[in-house]
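Quick illustration, no need to memorize.
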Amino acid sequence: MTPQADLAEPTRVTWDADFAAGHELIDAQHQGLFDQCNRLADLCTGGAGEVSLRQFDQAFDRLKVLAREHCESEAALLAASGQALAEPEDALAECEEFEYLADEIATTANFDRLELQRFLALWCVGHVKASARQLREALATHLLAAAQR
């Protein structure tokens, strides 16, 4: 993510090699979250017409679906690894927290769409950075333990 000099602009996110967890599905989902944040950024700059607002709201709903699917994938990966990785419940708890924020607090009723897009981009970057680091370490430990058996 590149810092924005102009506060009237949406926050665009770019994939960086440091964001890679080393798991094909998880990395693809993380990139998909970034793509959806950038789609929201595009819609913020497209004017405030009724069609644009509706498209933003639909893209926001799509981001929530992608986030849910991703958290479920992370939880399944963690559960399949047994005790080697972090608790699957942690991934689901993070997802529930995001859903609460997106449904109850960070909404188009409480914030304008530009502020909402910035929040979503920052949340996604924070999630991806933390998740990728945790998964890289845990997968390396899990693979090392499996190789020693």
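The mean pLDDT is 84.
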